[in-house]
């Protein structure tokens, strides 16, 4: 039995956009750097730049509600019965430093959904998303290609 349904296939190409309600701010940069243990002096001072992955944490500026699992970040909330969700990884491209005065907008696009089978014969659905981050001037800041895996159970 296939996990990949027509309803899932119809999700490919879906997009959502989140825009922060204000500038990122020096305090947010400093707090994030402290939280991840980053001591680079570029993250503090009068004109700090953000640690690269700060903008990839959509929940830090999008104001999204928590889902049933307590997660407050972006999600497609795909219903694939009999599977559990695991992270497949992220590939980041950073195009320019993010400044405290940047107002962030991220556009998430569901780029692909494919079905595969593990070496052990377990079915899985692989979901590939692309998040594109820009500032209020439309300057490209970063691109995050994220892979999520909905892993079925062995039969």
UniProtKB/TrEMBL annotation:
Domain of life: Bacteria
Protein name: FAS1-like dehydratase domain-containing protein
One Pfam family, short name: FAS1_DH_region
Gene3D superfamilies: Hotdog Thioesterase
Lineage: Bacteria, Bacillati, Actinomycetota, Actinomycetes, Micromonosporales
Domain FAS1-like dehydratase: from-to ranges: 10-141
């Amino acid at each position: 039995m296939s996990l990949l349904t027509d309803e899932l296939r119809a999700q490919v190409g879906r997009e959502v956009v989140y825009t922060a309600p204000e500038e990122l701010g020096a305090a947010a940069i400093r707090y994030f750097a402290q939280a991840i243990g980053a001591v680079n002096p570029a993250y503090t001072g009068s004109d700090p730049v953000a640690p690269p992955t700060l903008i990839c944490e959509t929940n830090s500026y999008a104001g999204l509600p928590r889902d049933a699992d307590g997660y407050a970040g972006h999600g497609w909330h795909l219903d694939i019965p009999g599977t559990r969700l695991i992270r497949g990884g992220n590939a980041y491209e950073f195009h320019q430093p993010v400044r405290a005065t940047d107002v962030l907008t991220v556009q998430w696009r569901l780029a692909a959904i494919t079905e595969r089978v593990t070496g052990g014969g377990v079915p899985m659905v692989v979901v590939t998303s692309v998040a594109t981050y820009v500032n209020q001037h439309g300057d490209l800041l970063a691109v995050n290609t994220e892979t999520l895996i909905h892993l079925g159970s062995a039969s």
